[in-house]
């Protein structure tokens, strides 16, 4: 804004004109105060507009946001945070310096590394379009995990190369540099780095791997960066801010915390989680302090040559000067007669109506949860049919779930009247039939054994849970039938058997190591999602190889949520009747009856053992010590005889290290004490890294065999994403309901 020009003298005829008294010299500095009176508005050369501020009464804060910053040696930071803020805009963004992750090798050992993490508290979000997760190195696997508004996410990038000459400046396609997006809504970024070959063959020109989230425009990749990043500690990222996680209606309700000052209005940008303020049209200034009228007449050309400008509050008027009149098109033309009509060319004033339209956006969380709890209680008392119907209606209204209500005769016809020959599974829960609907769609139909209340309850439980989960790796519920005495559930038909079948029965040895590792990481992903993304968290309670179905592409689909439990936020331990499958059942849970997520971790550990040994979990008719796979497994680990119990079909010199690593993960998962077991998101990350390594190694083997070096280079980018772990109902998970979230937190290991 440059108001430096003086108006041409010939236009200064009209006495109303108010000249801009400010001879502002800097074009960037505004001519209105940006901070509160007697508050510091600069730190170094970074300006600090309110709501940001230093010291008591200088910044904005409410129950879920805090804009307190501090200035130390000319560096602007959030309180108790190492991250320097380099720029703040009133349009809702700031730029901060984020840590670079590294993993350096010398000879054949890692000498130093870190795993930095950044957690932006409310109401700050990493901008997903301007920032990129970037990995630099010639033997580098990096995983970025974190929390976003809707879920936790895991994604990553692999970057490889054989020769420095192959690396191109400006290209981040996986050869020396790899870039990928971060999901929208991310407020936490955890970076972990790994390598496949310890940089052994690239040490001379690339001893280190680097990984960081960076503003795309602020980082340009050059081949030199393979060696010259050692001294770079931080790089800029762009962060979006809102004033508070409230919509405008909610915000305006509480006058004492409403942040928009005089002559400003509240608005919520599409996709944003909270509101911001902006000056009403015709006003300027810091909307959080109050906006002042813009003197439009400072622009000498505002009204045209024969018209005089008059500033009004929020707008301005143009009046033809003496001797001229308005010609009907807004122009002033010379008078023939004496008339001299003032003409108003007003600029439309837009009131504060816009924001009202954009609202009614999904703020479920607490109320929703309480509602569900109440409904659930009702379910336990009455029979479930009515509840189920309600649930389905709600899902339908929300447009989130396409759960269909099937007619009884439709399903009878599909299964040939529930003929024995159509049975594809049987269990404690009931029977599963294969069915073909009239549109030739093949489905699996689950029918409860009896009408006993427990079983009906399990069915309803399953519907309720599955209607909240939307993951590619969970068997999809298509619909149900309520007309029968017992409800029937209709699922997508997964036609390639269960993991159990493949490991122990029909299709023995058909699963390669790559596929087994993939299946393991998919199951880990589902559990990680159930435990830490689903809201409230879900404990599956019956993880076992026969509950993992495989499709034609060997994609794992976790099934059977019949005895799964929702864990409400106020009790993370639930006392239940011990249920599960012998051999997979967490001994701690068996003893105490207290259920936690770690019980699933235990069962998953057992599945991992099954995957690498190809042995059954429970071998009846053997001596007590050899009956349980877990005992045999732990004994062989202890005696360093792991190789002996590994599945011969998959163990080979190339992957023995990986098998060993998986064995160690399995061992941690079955630690006797639940608290010593890792959480599923760490397991997921470790398995993803292993998978990336396995992929690279198998490519290399292939390359050796075919003596064709191009192959490897073409396939360097391996992207992983679990962004399909997404509840389409738009529920927010925990981060927004806690107030203790630190604004920014220190990275570890630095
Ligand atoms: C002020 O900002 C400029 C860039 O805008 C930068 O180069 C300079 O180092 C900054 N000065 C201080 C003291 O931070
Ligand atoms: C209104 O805002 C103030 C200041 O943030 C807060 O202390 C108070 O609890 C809020 N009142 C309500 C009803 O939310
Ligand atoms: C300023 O920063 C230095 C290190 O950068 C730190 O040691 C010092 O305690 C800080 N001072 C204040 C007042 O926070
Ligand atoms: C690691 O380095 C040592 C010497 O520093 C060497 O003897 C050994 O063979 C190397 N191992 C590998 C796997 O390269
Ligand atoms: C991210 O930054 C760009 C550029 O400043 C901006 O246009 C966009 O609205 C931002 N995204 C969000 C979600 O705010
Ligand atoms: C990120 O790291 C922090 C600190 O180690 C941890 O508390 C948090 O759970 C991690 N988040 C994810 C998604 O791994
Ligand atoms: C990498 O180093 C680790 C220990 O530092 C070692 O166990 C592993 O075998 C090495 N891998 C390769 C491919 O050199
Ligand atoms: C990357 O390398 C180029 C060329 O040497 C250098 O100018 C640039 O500063 C490097 N990037 C960073 C972030 O250090």
Automatic annotation (TrEMBL):
Q: Which residues form the Protein kinase domain?
A: 418-689
Topology in membrane: Single-pass type I membrane protein
* Transmembrane regions: 341-364
MF term (GO), any: calcium ion binding
Task: Report the PROSITE patterns cross-referenced here.
Answer: ASX_HYDROXYL (PS00010), EGF_2 (PS01186), EGF_3 (PS50026), EGF_CA (PS01187), PROTEIN_KINASE_ATP (PS00107), PROTEIN_KINASE_DOM (PS50011), PROTEIN_KINASE_ST (PS00108)
Entry keyword set: ATP-binding, Disulfide bond, EGF-like domain, Glycoprotein, Kinase, Membrane, Nucleotide-binding, Phosphoprotein, Repeat, Serine/threonine-protein kinase, Signal, Transferase, Transmembrane, Transmembrane helix
Query: InterPro entries, from UniProt?
Result: EGF, EGF-like_Ca-bd_dom, EGF-type_Asp/Asn_hydroxyl_site, EGF_Ca-bd_CS, Kinase-like_dom_sf, NOTCH1_EGF-like, Prot_kinase_dom, Protein_kinase_ATP_BS
| Function of the protein | Serine/threonine-protein kinase that may function as a signaling receptor of extracellular matrix component. Binding to pectin may have significance in the control of cell expansion, morphogenesis and development.
Q: What protein is this chain from?
A: OLC1v1015650C1
């Amino acid at each position: 804004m440059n108001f430096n020009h003086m108006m041409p003298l010939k236009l200064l005829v009209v006495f109303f004109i108010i000249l801009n008294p400010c001879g502002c010299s800097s074009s960037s500095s505004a001519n209105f105060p940006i901070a509160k009176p007697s508050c510091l508005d600069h730190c170094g050369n970074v300006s600090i507009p309110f709501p940001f501020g230093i010291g008591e009464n200088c910044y904005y804060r409410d129950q879920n946001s805090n804009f307190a910053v501090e200035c130390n040696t000319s560096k602007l930071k959030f309180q108790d945070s190492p991250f320097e803020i380099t720029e703040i805009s009133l349009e809702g963004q700031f730029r901060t310096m984020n840590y670079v992750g590294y993993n350096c090798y010398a000879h054949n050992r890692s000498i130093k590394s870190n795993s930095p993490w950044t957690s932006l508290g409310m109401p700050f979000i990493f901008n997903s379009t301007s920032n990129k997760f970037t990995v630099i190195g010639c033997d580098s696997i990096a995983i970025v995990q974190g929390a976003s508004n809707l879920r936790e996410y895991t994604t990553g990038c692999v970057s490889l190369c054989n020769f420095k000459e192959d690396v191109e400046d400006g290209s981040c396609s996986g050869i020396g540099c790899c870039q990928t997006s971060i999901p929208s809504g991310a407020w936490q970024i955890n970076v972990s780095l790994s390598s496949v070959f310890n940089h052994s063959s690239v040490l001379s020109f690339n001893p280190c791997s680097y990984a960081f989230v960076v503003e795309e425009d602020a980082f340009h990749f050059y081949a030199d960066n393979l060696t010259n990043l050692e001294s770079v500690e931080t790089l800029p990222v762009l962060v979006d801010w809102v004033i508070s996680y409230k919509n405008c209606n909610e915000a305006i309700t509480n006058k004492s915390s409403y942040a928009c000052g005089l002559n400003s209005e509240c608005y919520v940008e599409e996709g944003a989680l909270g509101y911001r303020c902006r000056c009403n049209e015709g006003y300027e200034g810091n909307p959080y302090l109050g906006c002042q009228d813009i003197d439009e007449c400072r622009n000498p050309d505002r009204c045209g040559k024969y018209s005089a400008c008059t500033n009004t509050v929020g707008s301005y008027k143009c009046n033809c000067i003496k001797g001229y009149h308005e010609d009907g098109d807004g122009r002033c033309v010379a008078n023939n007669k004496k008339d001299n009509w003032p003409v108003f060319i007003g600029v439309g004033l837009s009131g504060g109506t816009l924001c009202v339209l954009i609202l009614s956006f999904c703020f479920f969380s607490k109320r929703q949860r309480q509602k569900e709890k109440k409904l659930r209680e009702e379910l336990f008392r009455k029979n479930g049919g009515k509840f189920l119907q309600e649930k389905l209606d709600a899902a339908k209204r929300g447009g989130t779930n396409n759960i269909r209500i099937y007619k009884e005769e439709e399903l009878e016809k599909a299964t040939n009247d529930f003929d024995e020959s159509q049975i594809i599974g049987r269990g404690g829960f009931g029977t599963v039939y294969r069915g073909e609907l009239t549109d030739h769609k093949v489905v699996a139909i689950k029918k409860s054994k009896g009408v006993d209340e427990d079983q009906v309850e399990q069915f309803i439980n399953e519907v309720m849970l599955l209607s909240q989960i939307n993951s590619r790796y969970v068997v999809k519920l298509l619909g149900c039938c309520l007309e029968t005495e017992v409800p029937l559930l209709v699922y997508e038909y997964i036609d390639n058997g269960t993991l159990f079948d493949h490991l122990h029965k029909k299709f023995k040895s058909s699963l390669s190591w790559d596929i087994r590792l993939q299946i393991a990481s998919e199951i880990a992903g589902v559990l990680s999602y159930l435990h830490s993304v689903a809201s409230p968290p879900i404990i599956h309670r019956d993880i076992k190889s026969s509950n993992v179905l495989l499709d034609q592409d060997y994609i794992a689909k976790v099934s059977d949520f019949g005895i799964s439990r929702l864990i409400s936020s106020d009790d993370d331990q639930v006392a239940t009747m011990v249920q599960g499958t012998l051999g997979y059942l967490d001994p701690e849970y068996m003893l105490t009856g207290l259920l936690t997520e770690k019980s699933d971790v235990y069962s998953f550990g057992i599945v991992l053992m099954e995957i690498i040994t190809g042995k059954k979990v429970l071998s009846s008719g053997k001596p007590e010590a050899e009956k349980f796979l877990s005992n045999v497994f732990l004994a062989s680990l202890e005696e360093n005889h792991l190789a002996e119990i590994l599945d011969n079909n998959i163990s080979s010199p190339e992957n023995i290290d990986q098998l060993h690593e998986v064995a160690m993960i399995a061992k941690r998962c079955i630690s006797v004490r639940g608290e010593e077991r890792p959480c599923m998101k760490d397991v997921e990350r470790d398995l993803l890294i292993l998978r990336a390594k396995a992929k690279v190694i198998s490519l290399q083997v292939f390359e050796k065999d075919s003596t064709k070096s191009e192959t490897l280079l073409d396939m360097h980018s391996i992207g992983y994403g679990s962004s399909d772990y997404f509840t389409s109902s738009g529920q927010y998970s925990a981060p927004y309901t806690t107030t203790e979230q630190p604004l920014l937190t220190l990275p570890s290991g630095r």
